[in-house]
Amino acid sequence: QVQLVESGGGLVQAGGSLRLSCAASGGTFSRYGMGWFRQAPGKERDFVAGITWSSSLTYYADSVKGRFTVSRDNAKNTVYLQMNSLKPEDTAVYYCAATTKTWTARPGDYDYWGQGTQVTISS
Fold first, then answer.
1. Is a pLDDT exceeding 90 seen at residue 46?
2. Which residues contact 83 (CB under 8 A, 6 or more apart)?
């Protein structure tokens, strides 16, 4: 059983930056591909970014390409999401998740989820 805890959310102005962290415990972190998702009020949970267990592959939703960067430190059991050039439409609750698949953008393929962290971007 893997437990995931996100942190780093907050309120920033458009054009600003935030770095989200997701700390994992209770399992072998390096065995899992990791993903970031987000959910705005009244909307479905959408894929944002993913990274394979070895960091050999990172992949992003078109809406965040060039602005967000996902990375991981297996020694610290932590995955990060660096978010730059933030826009009001990035406002959502951000979740990290773990999957046994090599890579996937489908929420249903992820086995473990964090509780989420709120990101609010003001215009």
1. yes
2. 17, 18, 19, 20, 64, 67, 68, 90, 119
